[in-house]
Amino acid sequence: MSLLTLEHVDKTYGQGDLQVHALNGVDLTISKGEFTTVFGPSGSGKTTLLNLIGALDRPTSGSVVFLDKPIGSMNRHEQAAHRRFHVGFIFQSYNLIPVLTAYENVEFALKITGIRDSKKIHSQVTDMLDHVGLSELMHRRPNQLSGGQKQRVAVARALVKHPKLVLADEPTANLDSKTSKEVIEVMLRMNRELHTTFIFSTHDPMVMEYARRMVEIRDGNISQDTER
Amino acid sequence: MHLITIAWRNLKRHGLRTGIALLAVAAVVLIVIFSRGFVKSLTESSFRLYIDNMYGHVRITTEEYALREMLLPLDHMMDGFNSAGISSMVEELEQHSSVRYVMPRVRFGAMASRDDDMVRMMGIGIDVQRERTYGALAEDISSGRMIKEGNEILVGSGLMEDLKAEVGDRVTLVFSDAFQSLRGRTFQIVGVRDSGVSDLDNVIFYVPLDTAQDMLWLDDEASELLVYTYSTDTTEALLADMRTLLHEQGSDEYLAVPWNQANPFVEMYSEMDNIMFAAYLLFVVMGTIVVVSTLTMIVRERTAEIGMMSALGLSSREIMGVFILEGFFIGVIGSLIGSAVGGLLTLYYSQAGFYVEAFDMFTSEADILIEPVFYLSFSMENLVFSFIMGTVVVTLASFLPAFKAAKLEPVDALHYGDD
Hints:
Number of strands of chain B: 12
Strand content of chain A: 25-35%
Order of helices and strands of chain B: HHEHHEEHHEEHEEHEHEHEHHHEHEHHH
Strand content of chain B: 15-25%
Radius of gyration of chain A: 17 Å
Largest sheet of chain A: 6 strands, mixed
Shape of chain B: elongated
Number of strands of chain A: 10
Order of helices and strands of chain A: EEEHEEHEHHHEHEHEE
Number of helices of chain B: 17
Structural class of chain B: alpha+beta
Strand order of the largest sheet of chain A: 6-7-8-3-9-10
Largest sheet of chain B: 10 strands, mixed
Helix content of chain A: 25-40%
Oligomer: heterodimer
Structural class of chain A: alpha/beta
Helix content of chain B: 55-70%
Shape of chain A: globular
């Protein structure tokens, strides 16, 4: 079943002679429960594609439809609400809130969805931190965690609200290979257990190996789309 | 709730900058509290001096006297209702419920010779019994006693020095009477008045009213009546009563003027509250510039974090809220510190007082009554006003950086600094 459809999506930055065509007529359909990687050289358009899928940006032309809703033409407020409820993000540089503990970072993502039942919140947050193997470190702040631990918190934060889609932009770029493997395995496990759709970009062949679908982008076009 | 936690903890995270912003707000609030205490003390003490010494709450004179007052004329005296004498007019005024005291006075110029110099001065004939009841004059007597009768005079401390005299000495004064004849009379100095105000102490002496009337060839007359009510706040009611009475008695040639309209300086003081409010606001705005700069730097540093919060789904309003809350906390804490320190300082100087040399010099040059020693006015109203002003203005000022933060495009903010 289709979760997301991109049709003839163009994205152009700048004006006049300084125009950069980041995406050129991209067509892509993502089904529920996929574990997909987007790969390609630097500047090929991976991050632009993820930004459009995550309603962080709007296409110059074409449509981005998420469960029958055209998210590409939503206003700023509607896009924020869409991200709040339906999309989880995992960033290359973790982007945790530095003044909150691991527990509070995860709790924050849940609370902003409007859940007020503190018992429910506590149980969901601790379960999620347990899933990513961080229950022992839940009261540490980001500066007291290693890179891998921070990224696990980011995974927990992205998943705690049970979003329909998790986008990860080079989630293992700052991690060593052992930690990268651990993080990607956590993501894969979540995908299997919670049936959450994952799309992640990467350069790392080892990480790509985990993907069930591989979408290659070159010069703003999808040059290869393989399922395994 | 989480936004409050984030805002609060962020203050500690940027400790140095927060500290500088807090200091700026605290300093401004302290200055406002101190200035308000000072201005209130200045105006209240100055108003009191003018009311006690010059104008009462309402002063009644003839219209001509008011016009030529500077010349101390003796040919435009008040001689009561229907020329029945000033004494009966005073008694009639005292019957009014809004009137507490009525004091007739005669002002005149005089001179004395000391060595090779002529010492110029102003005499004031006073109703000794009524002035004693009012009390302000008697309170300032630093040596000797209040005048009683006959040729006794009470002399200002500065004038006493110019006359090179002491209590008990006799001094011969020269003056013009109501018929412009130059006359002289010898008086005995029985007391010294030291009000601390050079304009009063350096030129004025006091003599019993009947003695003044006798020496100046005046009948039962006075140059002015100072009328006092129970509180400065009820001056308007007293004024209305006096004007009605003067009209009913057919004495429209008499002029009743309230204390706050009798002198341009007093009128200026009355406007001081409004002028100073603008000055306080300016102080606070200057302090908020530090807060705005601090928050603007913080917004810049936390751009990627703002992008992340936006990616999590926080609305622009919620992101604004985080920064406004940070400004609010800086405003509240800074204003609290400023209020506490300003309150303590004001309280201390309200007891100890402090001497402003410049005012002493200024008042001896200009015709203005200001006490050189100030006892700052301490009031909770001042602390609460300054605290609220500091908090509100700083919070409002934080809207600017907060708005900038909220306006950032999430995708740009997330990748801020990537290049």
